[in-house]
Amino acid sequence: MRIPFKESTQSKLFKKLYEDYYAPFCIFAKRYIEDICICEDIVSDVFAGLWDKQNALELRPETAVAYLKTCVRNNCLNYLKHQTYEIDYANICNKQAPIYASSPESIYTLDELYKLLYETLEKLPENYRIVFAKSFFEGKTHAEIAKEMNLSIKSINRYKQKTVEFLRKELKDYLPLILFLFIDKPLN
Hints:
This protein is mainly α. The chain has two domains: 3-95, Orthogonal Bundle (Rna Polymerase Sigma Factor, Chain: A); 100-181, Arc Repressor Mutant, subunit A. The chain contains eight helices and two strands. It has a two-stranded antiparallel sheet. It is elongated, with a radius of gyration of 31 Å.
């Protein structure tokens, strides 16, 4: 005998399954997950999924319970897997806290970030600084800079690339903040 969910008795059959097996499946889910509220949510989700698929499923009485039990077990395992990902992500975030999170004194104002950037730029050769300033601060194209400095466009590209690499290395802890300063600037 089959339990076709397509028949007019589908609501009655679903209600019977739910009433008979909701509580036992919550206890079953407790084998995997300590929090009973989460177990109840998982079992409710399984039954809701079964209801959503009612037109596509035809459960037999001898396999309905096994099917639901497998669904509950798989949803519990998926929940635990997701929890593991969240914990791993939280651990990574805790290990890699940004430098400005260690103390209130390490939070920088825009002026302080610009000063840090300018101090770092001072360590570069003059031509590199000029190319960087004309490109990022003045918004000039490579061709315009090359013409002004009597250099080739390839030289301008190389200067700019070397400058960005240097800044990336020197300001690695501040890079997200420094990049924020240039979000609206064209990168020619």
